[in-house]
Design brief:
Layout lengths: L2 H7 L30 H20 L3 E2 L5 E3 L10 H4 L2 E4 L5 E4 L4 H11 L7 E10 L11 E10 L5 H16 L7 E7 H10 L5 H10 L7 H10 L4 H11 L4 H8 L4 H16 L5 E3 L13 E7 L8 E5 L3 H4 L7 E7 L2 H8 L10 E7 L5 H13 L4 E3 L6 H10 L2 E7 L1 H5 L2 E6 L5 E5 L5
Parallel strand pairs: 1-5, 7-8, 12-13, 12-14
Antiparallel strand pairs: 2-4, 3-4, 5-6, 6-11, 7-9, 9-10, 10-11, 14-15, 15-16
Helix pairs in contact: 2-5, 5-11, 6-9
Bound molecules: N-(quinolin-3-yl)acetamide.
Length: about 450
């Protein structure tokens, strides 16, 4: 039995005579593997970032939504060989239900759209900022959670929707000081793959799987890619043609290859001309090799990248016109993107753009002796009712301590409640930036 048992059974004398600390097992005070705490300074930076996510979303008239972090596992079971599936944080709950911590937000959004069905008036413009999870063997020491900003447009079949989404991300980048020389967007369409596969009469079911294999093209040796494509029943001829098309460097060359009649070329041409109207042409480039690693994309796909090539993709998205029917709903055209909270902070660090977000408190209020603690509380309440922030000193502390705290919380002014002033209904105020000092009736404080 461990020492706790002794304590409980009292075998070793009465508890009070023994310091409790002998018995309590120290728990691990770190957060679970792959997860983070957000102490105040980190939380201020996170709020700074998420406030920009929200302000841009609202500037584009998107409405905020959210979903449970816990979903039925079935929502994420796809058979296309995605990494996100291999790392699903899934388990059986105490009701023997197969559940999962969401690895992404889009399937939950699709579920809610189906649930709401006809009561929704299209188009929907929804955004969310939510924590997403993956279960990786800690061999890779990577994080198991991150926060993702998503924006989705549901009910618009035109590439005007994708153009709008890219515009919102460009707006976000500009707000935080990132320029077109720092990052760009690689843009392509999965209809390119579709048109090639159709020439080789590859069945549609294989489309998702082929995309997931192609998405690994920069991570695996080309022979491995070919091997996986062969095991997906593609002929060598189809594989060669596929890899050929994926290396096309311009929209003009693509048109030569696929002809101008196909949707792939016309969608991309429309997107690039819209980009000009939106004013973000210098942010985007055609890159046939972009397919993204999610099986459900069906059209335009794009990803934000750092031009120095040091970091992983900053964000990514695309059109997913067939997702709802995979859950038994009626298909509604849709597109969206996901923007994680990790890579962007690495980029901001690289560019020296991490903002100084200190605590900002307007007032620190302190009673000069204990029998004025109530008076100090009433002063704090008056100021708070005027909408001001107040750090009320809650114990009888020496002035030296109060000044140190005032500096640490970056208070604008110090309000001292002293007996002689209080008898006149006044307090004494010290402006902590100018040093100016004066007495004033509390009601005249603003
Ligand atoms: C760089 C990083 O933290 N990526 C990350 C971290 N956690 C995740 C959790 C779920 C899905 C994708 C994830 C991706």
């Amino acid at each position: 039995a461990n020492s706790n048992d002794n304590a409980r059974s009292g075998r070793s004398g009465s508890l009070s005579s023994i310091p409790a600390h002998d018995f309590v097992q120290k728990i691990d005070v770190n957060p679970p593997k792959g997860t983070r705490d957000f102490p105040p300074e980190d939380m201020r930076l996170r709020n700074w970032l998420f406030n920009h996510f929200r302000e841009v979303s609202q500037m584009f008239a998107f409405e905020e939504v959210d979903f449970p972090v816990l979903e039925s596992e079935a929502l994420f079971i796809r058979k296309a060989g995605e990494e996100i599936r291999d790392q699903l944080y899934c388990f059986e709950d105490r009701g023997n239900r197969r559940v999962a911590l969401r690895p992404e937000l889009t399937p939950s959004l699709a579920r809610l759209v189906i649930q709401k069905g006809k009561s929704l008036s299209l188009p929907l413009k929804w955004f969310a900022v939510g924590q997403c999870w993956r279960y990786e063997r800690m061999t890779r020491g990577r994080r198991r959670e991150h926060y993702q900003w998503n924006m989705d447009i549901i009910g618009v079949p035109d590439v005007t929707a994708e153009a709008e989404l890219i515009s919102s991300i460009v707006t976000f980048f500009k707000r935080i000081g990132i320029t077109a020389s720092d990052v760009g967007f690689k843009v392509s369409s999965r209809k390119v793959l579709q048109e090639v596969l159709r020439c080789y009469s590859i069945p549609n079911e294989l489309f998702g799987k082929v995309c997931i294999i192609i998405d690994k093209i920069e991570k695996l040796p080309i022979d491995e890619i070919k091997k996986e494509l062969r095991s997906a029943e593609l002929s060598d001829e189809a594989i060669e043609e596929l890899l050929q098309v994926l290396s096309v460097k311009s929209l003009a060359k693509l048109e030569e290859k696929l002809g101008a009649a196909g949707e792939a070329v016309s969608d991309l041409q429309q997107l690039f001309s819209l980009a000009e109207k939106f004013g973000y042409s210098e942010w985007i480039q055609f890159d046939a090799s972009v397919v993204r690693g999610l099986a459900y994309y069906t059209g335009i796909v794009f990803e934000g990248f750092d031009r120095e090539g040091k970091l992983r993709a900053i964000c990514g998205g695309g059109r997913y016109d067939r997702l709802l029917s995979t859950f038994g709903g009626e298909d509604i055209p849709a597109c969206g993107f996901g923007f994680g909270d990790a890579v962007i902070l690495e980029l901001l660090k690289e560019k020296g753009l991490i903002p100084e977000v200190g605590q900002q408190v307007e007032n620190i209020v302190c009673a000069l002796d204990t029998d004025l603690q109530g008076a100090a509380a009433s002063v704090a309440t008056i100021l708070r009712e005027k909408g001001q922030s107040v750090d009320l000193v809650l114990e009888n502390k020496p002035l030296k301590w109060v000044f140190k705290r005032a500096a640490r919380i970056n208070a604008r002014r110090l309000i001292l409640v002293g007996s002689s002033e209080w008898e006149k209904g006044e307090v004494s105020v010290k402006n902590l930036s100018s040093g100016e000092q004066y007495q004033i009736e509390v009601d005249r404080l603003e």
